[in-house]
Design goal:
Elements (H helix, E strand, L loop, with lengths): L1 E3 L5 E3 L7 E3 L2 E3 L1 H9 L4 E11 L3 E10 L7 H9 L10 E4 L15 H9 L1
Parallel strand pairs: 6-7
Antiparallel strand pairs: 1-2, 3-4, 5-6
Amino acid sequence: MAVRDEEGYIQLVDRKSNMIISGGENIYPSEVEAVSGAHPLVKDVAVVGVPDEKWGERVQAVVVLHEDAAVSEAESLDWCKERLAGFRRPRACSFLGEDEMPRNVTGRILHRALKARLQS
């Protein structure tokens, strides 16, 4: 997916298959990941949409912390609350060890595998 800015430049935003649609709003996981990943104790983050009865999908963050770091779910959600519009904010946050995050051979996070894991 791409967006065109006011000067006509095109910027790649995310993959269409990763886009989250919550309450009719399009949410690009890469935008939420950039904010959540800016937390000083976060090493890596993935954002996926999980089913929600009211909104269709809701945003969920899956975070890998730096070694010996400790952050609660509430602290992580508050970090995003201060920096993102309400409909873009994660509603839940879970934590994985670095070796638990599903990745392909080049190290990219497998969002589909992560989403499937969260739905089961």
